């Protein structure tokens, strides 16, 4: 028969419904909500992520993380009078049956939270949908295209909204997973950057991760108990096996010792501080060198930005496709 | 026989042919008060799981990354695999392994 444990946070006043992974505290619904919200609020304050009057875009995919982030940001903005002008910013990659469905979720969020929504599409920015790109290049490098295009699309959408800041739904599990992947790939430059709560250069709008210390389990439980609806289908073009293995490994570790997730983030942060002394100067070629793309004006260290290089390859392929279509 | 309601979400439903809720009837010798969640998971795997079993089960438990709630309580507070099911219990499986 079910045990009836009391919540340790309100001294057993209410029944415990969640075991909070970071503290292992059996917690009632109300205390759990407050735990997550305070955790995010403390992260925002400790790192001075915003100032009153800031215009902030929430990168919204319709998935669990960004749906909960939109909810928590609007809640904290009201509760603590942060004075933020919030916006939802979504990218439409042009993937039928995936993004068109998840965008419906984001449109519902716009209504529920009263936060204006801006959707920018690959098609309007680049003249290509992911469906068309996959048709042309197949399923080999499509995620490279999508990654480069998305990063730039978020920046451009943020510029259209004239925001000071972008927040993304990356949670503690995501960051720990990225630390592991960067170690496994030997990618030291990314390892140093990936634990940063905020990334900013002179040319780009700062991005930050208010969920840096929030476990995925907490986000999913929060969505469940708040009955927030989110979209949860894997991208149809992205099997991403390597990340899948890193994720499975991380989850196995977490099931043995829940602190593993924060421990790995912590380990990543230490690599960063140990190395910064040695290699601060020669990071030429990275963002922040001041160049811009000759074709589209986006920041770039060489003549063409990554998106324009990729587009060059695609557009060269276009006539071939047309001929193939004629031949049918 | 044991009657429980099973719910699948967060992408877990995709492994069960898209069904988000199942009124499950576990035949004898399954019975209220003796059948555990461990046995429920084994039964679910044999009788309901439609594809890629490795995304749902690992050994005799669910794959890490799948959250389980028993009557809306985190199963980590309810004895996990050892919990003895009662008629009318609801067990929810939520995948966290699908896109964010
Ligand atoms: Zn409480
Ligand atoms: Zn360019």
TrEMBL record, chain A:
EC number: 2.7.7.-
Record's function text: Plays a central role in 2-thiolation of mcm(5)S(2)U at tRNA wobble positions of tRNA(Lys), tRNA(Glu) and tRNA(Gln). Directly binds tRNAs and probably acts by catalyzing adenylation of tRNAs, an intermediate required for 2-thiolation. It is unclear whether it acts as a sulfurtransferase that transfers sulfur from thiocarboxylated URM1 onto the uridine of tRNAs at wobble position. Prior mcm(5) tRNA modification by the elongator complex is required for 2-thiolation. May also be involved in protein urmylation.
Name of the protein: Cytoplasmic tRNA 2-thiolation protein 1
Enzyme class, broadest EC rank: transferase
Lineage of the organism: Eukaryota, Fungi, Fungi incertae sedis, Chytridiomycota, Chytridiomycota incertae sedis
Classification via InterPro entries: CTU1-like_ATP-bd, CTU1_C, Ncs6/Tuc1/Ctu1, Rossmann-like_a/b/a_fold, TilS/TtcA_N, tRNA_thiolation_TtcA_Ctu1, UPF0021_CS
Subcellular location: Cytoplasm
Family: Belongs to the TtcA family. CTU1/NCS6/ATPBD3 subfamily.
Chief location bin: cytoplasm
tRNA(Ile)-lysidine/2-thiocytidine synthase N-terminal domain: residues covered: 56-249
Positions of the Cytoplasmic tRNA 2-thiolation protein 1 C-terminal domain: 291-320
Pfam families with a match to the protein in the record: ATP_bind_3, zn-ribbon_14
Annotated organism of origin: Polyrhizophydium stewartii
Keyword Secreted: no
Pathway: tRNA modification; 5-methoxycarbonylmethyl-2-thiouridine-tRNA biosynthesis
PANTHER family: ATPASES OF THE PP SUPERFAMILY-RELATED, CYTOPLASMIC TRNA 2-THIOLATION PROTEIN 1
Keywords assigned by UniProt, alphabetized: Cytoplasm, RNA-binding, Transferase, tRNA processing, tRNA-binding
TrEMBL record, chain B:
Function field: Acts as a sulfur carrier required for 2-thiolation of mcm(5)S(2)U at tRNA wobble positions of cytosolic tRNA(Lys), tRNA(Glu) and tRNA(Gln). Serves as sulfur donor in tRNA 2-thiolation reaction by being thiocarboxylated (-COSH) at its C-terminus by the MOCS3 homolog UBA4. The sulfur is then transferred to tRNA to form 2-thiolation of mcm(5)S(2)U. Prior mcm(5) tRNA modification by the elongator complex is required for 2-thiolation. Also acts as a ubiquitin-like protein (UBL) that is covalently conjugated via an isopeptide bond to lysine residues of target proteins such as AHP1.
Modified residue annotations for 1-thioglycine: 100
Protein name: Ubiquitin-related modifier 1
Organism of provenance: Polyrhizophydium stewartii
PANTHER family from the UniProt entry: RURM1 PROTEIN
Post-translational events: C-terminal thiocarboxylation occurs in 2 steps, it is first acyl-adenylated (-COAMP) via the hesA/moeB/thiF part of UBA4, then thiocarboxylated (-COSH) via the rhodanese domain of UBA4.
Family: Belongs to the URM1 family.
Lineage, uppermost ranks: Eukaryota, Fungi, Fungi incertae sedis, Chytridiomycota, Chytridiomycota incertae sedis
HAMAP family: Urm1
Glycyl lysine isopeptide (Gly-Lys) (interchain with K-? in acceptor proteins) cross-link, renumbered residues: 100
Top-rank lineage group of the source organism: Eukaryota
CDD domains the UniProt entry points to: Ubl_Urm1 (cd01764)
Keywords carried by this UniProt record: Cytoplasm, Isopeptide bond, tRNA processing, Ubl conjugation pathway
Designated gene of the protein: URM1_1
Pathway: tRNA modification; 5-methoxycarbonylmethyl-2-thiouridine-tRNA biosynthesis
Compartments, record wording: Cytoplasm
